[in-house]
Specification:
It is a single chain. With about 110 residues, the protein is α+β, with helices and mostly antiparallel strands. Helix content is about 25%, strand content about 20%. It has 3 helices and 5 strands. The protein is globular and about 40 Å long. The structure holds adenosine monophosphate. The site of adenosine monophosphate has 12 residues, from loops.
Length: about 110
C-alpha cells in the first residue's frame, strides 16, 4: 500500500492540525505555513492525488468543496474578498499529493501569481 499523505494523517488524527470544519466529505484546517492572515486548506477525505484525478462522477464533491471554502471565508470574516487556489501538478506548484483548496484572505492579493 502507498504511504499516507500528510493530509490523510491529519484526517486520521495521526498528526494534529487546527481543524476549523469537518463533515462527511471533507476536513478543513489551518495551513501550517500561512501565506495570509487567514489560510485554510479544504481537503476531501478521499485521497485524490490532485484536481486532475477528479472525474465527472466527482462533480458533487467538487461543488461541495467549493461551497465549504465559501463558508469558511464567511466564518473567518473575509467580507472584503479572498482567494481560492488549487495548485495542481509540478508546474502548478503542488507539494502535497492530496487534492486541497487553499482559502486565503485578510490582506489584498496580487495578480499575476508567481
Ligand atoms: P500545495 O503546495 O498547494 O500542495 O500546498 C500544500 C500546503 O500544505 C502548503 O501550504 C503547506 O504549508 C501545507 N502543509 C503541509 N504540511 C502541513 C501540516 N502538517 N499541517 C497544515 N498544513 C500543512
Amino acid at each position: 500500500m502507498l504511504s499516507k499523505t500528510v493530509f490523510e494523517r491529519i484526517i486520521d488524527r495521526e498528526i494534529t492540525a487546527e481543524i476549523v470544519h469537518e463533515d462527511e466529505w471533507c476536513v478543513a484546517f489551518r495551513d501550517i505555513h500561512p501565506q495570509a492572515p487567514v489560510h485554510v486548506l479544504v481537503v476531501p477525505r478521499r485521497p485524490f492525488a490532485s484536481l486532475d484525478a477528479l472525474t465527472e462522477y466527482d462533480e458533487g464533491l467538487a461543488g461541495h468543496l467549493l461551497l465549504v471554502a465559501q463558508r469558511i471565508a464567511r466564518e473567518e470574516g473575509l467580507s472584503e474578498g479572498y482567494r481560492i487556489v488549487v495548485n495542481t501538478g509540478q508546474h502548478g506548484g503542488q507539494t502535497v499529493d492530496h487534492l486541497h483548496i487553499h482559502v486565503l484572505g485578510g490582506r489584498p492579493m496580487r495578480w499575476p501569481p508567481g
